[in-house]
Amino acid sequence: MIIMIKTMMNRGKSSYHNQQVISFEDIREATNSFSEENKLGEGGYGPVYKGKLSNGQEIAVKRLSHSSKQGMEEFKNEVTFATKLQHVNLIKLLGFCTEREEKMLIYEYMPNKSLDFYIFDPQRRLMLNWEKWVEIIEGIIQGLLYLQEYSRLTILHRDLKASNILLDANIKPKISDFGIAKSFESNEIEASTDRIVGTYGCVPPEYIKQGLYSRKYDVYSFGVLLLQIISGKKNYSVYGPHQNLNLLEYVSFLLLSFFFYILQNKYNLLDLLVNRLLPLVISLTNGKRLRVNFVFLNTLLMDFITSIDI
Ligand SMILES: Nc1ncnc2c1ncn2[C@@H]1O[C@H](COP(=O)(O)OP(=O)(O)OP(=O)(O)O)[C@@H](O)[C@H]1O
Ligand SMILES: [Mg+2]
């Protein structure tokens, strides 16, 4: 892989499969010299800038910062997976730049930002109606089904979270950030690692405790994301009567409270929530053995969506 990237670097402005090598000068021009006004945000890899190439195409440039703990490994991963994976619900990597010790990744620009922009803000949540939320959830599942079931490789994304789901001009979701993704042999059930990476709150317990990862890893992260979409709450904030529960614990607490109410015959509705939605979410975030896979999940979710008419 290193050899492949080096060869790509040495070619100057050329292309490798669908990857364009873009010069530092072109990117500098496109981003108004990496100006503050062009800055879209900043993550663990480094700052992200909006830009416009001379052919008029809008781009987002991720520039590895010197202080970043991520680096060559993540850069190579992004380029490798982008070359192999093509799906309408995955972000498209247009090219990269490695001139002057830089490691820049150039993506198609997503004008409607990432899901976290909408989920956690009570006003912005209302900008998307129920149908749009359903379409977004369906789109994310289609992307994940492709990664796990329908592409030639079995890919674990391993960093599925709201800020990594970008929305295009038509609010179509695109899964982004394959920096710590892993490909899996299709007959491999489970593997283990000593190097724990990912985002706190989105990583399944078996990975934190034993370093085990399997197809069920992304299912767990998707369950957390679904909870966040429904509740508008972040996983790592504290909730509950004593403010000491994370989102999953809080949902379990709510579920128990609902059952308590029902047993006491105080509440008789909430059939939808208690009998359908919560079991679905809990089945996603459950211990690995009971956690459903994406094919089954797709059926469950579609069944749930068609059973309610909001
Ligand atoms: N292709 C893109 N188009 C538009 N905005 C983007 C694009 N890629 C990233 N962004 C924005 O840039 C910001 C930083 O993204 P980045 O992926 O670097 O970090 P993050 O996902 O917030 O955190 P982490 O480093 O933990 O993944 C986010 O707000 C995201 O919405
Ligand atoms: Mg990201």
From TrEMBL:
Keywords tagged on the record: ATP-binding, Disulfide bond, Glycoprotein, Kinase, Lectin, Nucleotide-binding, Serine/threonine-protein kinase, Signal, Transferase
Reactions catalysed, as given in the entry: L-threonyl-[protein] + ATP = O-phospho-L-threonyl-[protein] + ADP + H(+); L-seryl-[protein] + ATP = O-phospho-L-seryl-[protein] + ADP + H(+)
SMART domains: S_TKc
A GO term, aspect molecular function: carbohydrate binding
Identification of the protein by name: non-specific serine/threonine protein kinase
Limits of the Protein kinase domain: 34-301
Database matches in InterPro entries: Kinase-like_dom_sf, Prot_kinase_dom, Ser/Thr_kinase_AS
Cellular component terms (Gene Ontology): plasma membrane
GO biological process: immune response; signal transduction
UniProt organism field: Helianthus annuus
